[in-house]
Design a protein that fits this description.
about 230 residues, Aminopeptidase, 6 helices, about 30% strand
Amino acid sequence: MRNIILDNPIWNAMISGNNSLTIGNEYAKFFPEDVAPFAGLKEFDEQSFQQLHNIFPKNRVAVIFSAMPVEIPANWNVKDSIKAFQMIFDRVNKPLPGDEVEILSLSKEHVPEMIALTKLTHPGPFAKRTIEFGNYFGIFKNSNLVAMAGQRLNPGRYVEISAVCTHPKHAGKGYGKALINNLVQRINSEGNVPILHVRADNEHACSIYKYLGFTIRSEININVIQKEV
């Protein structure tokens, strides 16, 4: 049975857990550019795409997620199309591997370091207000941020883990796993279900997420589009 909420995660996050950050109407919404590049459509039909086109800023790109392939209307320029997996945590009530590392909550004062780390490691889009999605955590060495992860989309009872990254000089130390475990435990303790999205060609990341208790729920089509004026 299909999960309607997770088949259209951006839109369903925008009408529930992330509603306070959105701009739009009953057919189409988007986040401010300094929050995230995502746009959500109620339906992947001509009307919803036109509604988004009407309200979307010029020269901005929109990133949309869909479980099924989508036909992009001619008044949008497709900049990129990416195949990804949507993974869901299914190890409820089973212990996760233990981690012995100090994990600290990140705040707005850490944003410059967070942006620098994500620019270096490319885990996905991260802007100066992305932290407003909430619950970002990091690991520091010699007062420098060397690893981080947080939550982003929040459709209903599902919470997406995102921005998982480690400085290359500190790779292989288990920091990413520790941060994911921390977020999984936090999300589960609130009665919610952790999810994440990963590029289908990132076999290394997929194997780590499976080890930590995630399974592939669905393929996700990611389209990066820009409106034709």
